[in-house]
């Protein structure tokens, strides 16, 4: 049997879960630790291996370093690139870096008998921080007044180094991998006495020691507002102890996402309110309420249920046994008898990317590599599969062992943020384990109004509306929806809680925006051309109405073809259209609207919502006309199916395959144009009555260029965000593939993973859990699990592209469009 056939022949039982992502090609034995880092291993766990805390370790004997005899007993070594900020600053030089208990020394070779090029006393190091100068690079600043040594015979580099402040000298060290960088930072921080203190002498950073005090059930040393955010996020002391670095990472992410100053109480309180309280008690109150006043008091009796639910969700074994096999879909999949031999290389390649880590975790044979070497080749069975950090079944019963993380976490974060942000370091708890457990339980108790899910008052909102509200309560910041400029009829949906995009510096001036808008809009009042029928939906930037064309403006088709690159817009009287009305002065980021129009205008594809025309009614009143998708959003469809089915999965696999394939085609079209959508989720996928599936909401789109082939801006909706976005790493089109995988889970389970969690906690879980677990894997086909495993692959190198996905076997079970029409019946 060929390797690929062997992989394909695994039975459903072998795949109870999609498991973690396949390892990268380099993640063999020789590089297992790097792979572990790239996967989901919490930083703190990896740090444990370093044993940085124990001074009496591995004696290597005395060692001569030039004229300085380093009579210390422990060291870390490795090759690095090095440069200073002096005359020869343009030169990066390969050096062998040696760190022992007293010195950091740079050698030209790894013999260590020669004199070092540079020798720095650890007591002279006053600051270490990551820098963008080079990949995997950190800057080390030392005070020349503090006993810094330079080897006389090799001092060309060091003696020439001078920073603006003559008593301080900077050097830059770059490692081969991010993992090495972390290791170096970790040991340097552990050993340099001036880095472990309360504050850094550089004045650029403010160090805070942070820990979790189970006695009080709160975090200590944390900036007040971060502490509040944490407290209300249900990130527990246990989470902190498991992976404090990830907690800090998501806090920083969250802070930047919301533009919160951690020391500003109001800002954080607002953000907090934004996360939690967004369900207005009555639909009629929506427009009159301010974002903060919308905060409704959460129910205190939700948490125990959530807790129980979490226990079940996380404890897969218990959970799975409870469920019957999934009902068979009424629709027969199309014949799928393609043999391995008939498959294209792309097909074989994509089919075989299944979850080896699952195998490692569940004692089933790992899938084996196909014979051909391809970029997505399965790791060989003989290689070490690194189990991912799976969510713990439940925290409370387990002993809490504090994992010291003696590090300034800041250097581990990508240096995309302001250099003077706070640095948070964990500090050890002072309480015994037994007390810890006790207090963690309390910490999880529903004590704080802000920490709870928004209370849903059954008198005010229907259960469905409440679910919608919960789903819409996804973006950390939220604003009251803009008042509709025209309200021809009552809104269809009761709940119109909307998201607010991150207010940040505009990239275009108002004049530029208006000039761009005028280029793509008709400067005329469109009111006579349309009869407004009803409100179809509410977005953050405006309301969407169903309208009918009752009159065609003169030369519309000529004018439209000019705007639409010569393609026939096919506009006629009687057409039903969707009109999105926006008041420009109320838009925090008008350039996003321009972005949206430009992307839609140039993206004519059967799986993209077609832009028809736009009008600037006045300088402030923008109407965007699009094709009308009467089926509404996929979210509505999922919710409606959930209400009507007793199966675990709201939709059947063939239906899911169809919808995902169509979405994937739309995405591939965008990706071929180097556009990343960045907000793929069921809310942004619309359907019409012929079961056409189209992507919408292009405000967050980003264009990749030759100069900028990666992005780093934090954009999207937390639960759908790829780990690399949450971890503030550079990312590309494949973030959309991750989100597509999450959207597939929405169709299988009714909601994305962690939706019950607060967004901050969800971010933490995305960062630490990696590939999410399925709730009912035993009910799913192997094909869909394989599909998910290549979408939800933490290592981007192994995550499939949209092009590859379109060759996946999963799509061969897609149903015909007619078989989806039943999903839309509830709309009638
Ligand atoms: N072309 C369309 N046809 C039918 N309904 C639509 C169409 N576009 C949007 N809608 C409905 O209007 C709602 C709001 O759409 P919109 O694109 O404004 O949402 P949003 O993404 O939340 O907001 P924004 O883009 O302003 O951030 C959608 O959820 C959908 O129900």
TrEMBL record:
Every CRIB domain range: 198-211
Membership in a protein family: Belongs to the protein kinase superfamily. STE Ser/Thr protein kinase family. STE20 subfamily.
Record EC number: 2.7.11.1
Keyword RNA-binding carried by entry: no
Compositionally skewed regions (Low complexity) per UniProt: 381-400
GO CC field: nucleus
Name under which the protein is recorded: non-specific serine/threonine protein kinase
Boundaries of every Protein kinase domain copy: 530-811
Biased composition (Polar residues): 1-10, 281-296, 406-419, 430-446
GO BP term (any one): negative regulation of gene expression
Catalysed reactions, as listed in the record: L-threonyl-[protein] + ATP = O-phospho-L-threonyl-[protein] + ADP + H(+); L-seryl-[protein] + ATP = O-phospho-L-seryl-[protein] + ADP + H(+)
Domain PH residue range list: 73-193
This protein's UniProt keywords: ATP-binding, Kinase, Nucleotide-binding, Serine/threonine-protein kinase, Transferase
Record-linked SUPFAM superfamilies: PH domain-like, Protein kinase-like (PK-like)
CDD domains: CRIB_PAK_like (cd01093), PH_Cla4_Ste20 (cd13279), STKc_PAK (cd06614)
Region of interest (Disordered), ranges: 1-33, 274-303, 322-343, 357-458, 472-512
Molecular function terms from GO: ATP binding; protein serine kinase activity; protein serine/threonine kinase activity
């Amino acid at each position: 049997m060929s390797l690929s056939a062997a992989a394909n022949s695994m039975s459903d039982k072998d795949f109870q879960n999609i498991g973690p992502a396949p390892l990268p090609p380099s993640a063999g034995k020789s590089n297992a630790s790097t792979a572990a880092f790239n996967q989901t291993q919490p930083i703190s766990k990896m740090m444990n291996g370093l044993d940085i805390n124990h001074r009496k370790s591995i004696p290597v004997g005395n060692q001569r370093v030039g004229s300085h005899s380093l009579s210390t007993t422990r060291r870390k070594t490795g090759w690095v690139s090095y440069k200073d900020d002096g005359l020869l600053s343009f030169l990066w030089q390969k050096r062998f870096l040696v760190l022992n208990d007293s010195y950091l020394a740079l050698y030209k070779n790894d013999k260590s008998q020669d004199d070092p090029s540079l020798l720095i006393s650890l007591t002279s190091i006053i600051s270490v921080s990551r820098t963008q100068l080079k990949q995997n690079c950190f800057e080390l600043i030392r005070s020349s007044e503090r006993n810094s040594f330079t080897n006389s015979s090799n001092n060309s580099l060091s003696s020439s180094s001078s920073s603006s402040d003559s008593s301080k000298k900077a050097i830059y060290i770059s490692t081969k991998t991010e993992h090495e960088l972390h290791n170096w930072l970790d040991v340097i921080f552990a050993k340099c006495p001036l880095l472990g203190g309360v504050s850094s002498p550089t004045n650029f950073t403010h160090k805070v020691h942070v820990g979790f005090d189970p006695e009080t059930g709160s975090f200590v040393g944390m900036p007040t507002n971060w502490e509040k955010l944490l407290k209300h996020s249900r990130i527990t002391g246990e989470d902190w102890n498991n992976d404090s670095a990830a907690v800090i990472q998501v806090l920083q992410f969250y802070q930047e996402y919301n533009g919160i100053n951690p020391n500003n109480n109001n800002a954080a309180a607002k953000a907090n309110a934004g996360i939690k309280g967004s369900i207005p008690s009555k639909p009629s109150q929506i427009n009159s309420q301010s974002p903060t006043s919308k905060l409704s008091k959460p129910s205190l009796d939700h948490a125990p249920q959530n807790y129980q639910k979490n226990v079940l969700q996380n404890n897969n074994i218990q959970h799975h046994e409870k469920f019957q096999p999934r009902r068979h879909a009424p629709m027969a999949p199309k014949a799928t008898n393609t043999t391995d031999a008939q498959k294209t290389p792309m097909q074989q390649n994509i089919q075989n990317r299944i979850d080896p880590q699952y195998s490692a975790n569940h004692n089933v044979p790992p899938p084996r590599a196909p014979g051909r070497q391809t970029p997505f080749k399965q790791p060989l069975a003989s290689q070490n599969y690194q189990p991912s950090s799976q969510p713990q079944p439940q925290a409370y019963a387990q002993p809490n062992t504090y994992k010291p993380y003696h590090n300034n976490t800041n250097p581990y974060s990508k240096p995309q943020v302001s250099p003077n942000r706070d640095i948070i370091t964990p500090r050890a708890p002072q309480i015994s384990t037994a007390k810890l457990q006790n207090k963690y339980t309390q910490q999880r108790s529903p004590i704080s109004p802000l920490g709870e899910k928004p209370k849903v008052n059954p008198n005010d909102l229907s259960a469905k509306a409440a679910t919608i509200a919960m789903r819409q309560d996804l973006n950390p910041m939220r604003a009251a929806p803009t008042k509709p400029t025209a309200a021809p009829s009552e809104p269809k949906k009761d709940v119109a809680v909307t998201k607010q995009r991150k207010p940040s510096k505009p990239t275009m001036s108002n004049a530029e925006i208006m000039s761009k808008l005028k280029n793509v809009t008709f400067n005329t009042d469109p009111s006579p051309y349309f009869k407004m029928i009803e409100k179809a939906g509410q977005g953050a930037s405006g309301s969407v109405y169903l309208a009918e064309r009752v009159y065609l403006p003169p030369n519309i088709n000529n004018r439209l073809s000019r705007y639409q690159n010569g393609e026939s817009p096919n506009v006629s009287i009687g057409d039903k259209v969707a009109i999105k009305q926006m008041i420009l002065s109320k838009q925090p980021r008008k350039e996003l609207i321009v972005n949206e129009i430009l992307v839609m205008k140039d993206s004519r594809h059967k799986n993209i919502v077609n832009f028809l025309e736009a009008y600037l009614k006045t300088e402030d009143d923008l109407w965007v006309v699009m094709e009308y998708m009467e089926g509404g959003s996929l979210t509505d469809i999922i919710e409606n199916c959930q209400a009507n089915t007793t199966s675990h999965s709201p939709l059947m696999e063939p239906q899911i395959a169809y919808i995902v394939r169509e979405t994937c085609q739309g995405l591939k079209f965008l990706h071929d144009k180097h556009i990343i959508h960045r907000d793929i989720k069921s809310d942004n996928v619309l359907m019409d009555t012929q079961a056409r599936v189209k992507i919408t909401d292009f405000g967050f789109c980003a264009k990749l260029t030759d100069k900028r082939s990666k992005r780093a801006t934090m954009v999207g909706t937390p639960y759908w965000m790829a780990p690399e976005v949450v971890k503030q790493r550079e990312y590309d089109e494949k973030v959309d593939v991750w989100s597509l995988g999450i959207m597939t889970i929405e169709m299988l389970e009714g909601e994305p993973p962690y939706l019950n969690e607060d967004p901050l906690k969800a971010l933490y879980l995305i960062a630490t859990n990696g590939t999410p677990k399925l709730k009912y894997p035993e009910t799913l086909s192997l094909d869909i699990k394989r599909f998910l495993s290549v979408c939800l692959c933490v290592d981007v190198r192994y995550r499939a592209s949209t092009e590859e996905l379109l060759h996946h076997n999963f799509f061969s079970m897609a149903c015909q469009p007619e078989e989806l029409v039943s999903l839309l019946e509830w709309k009638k």
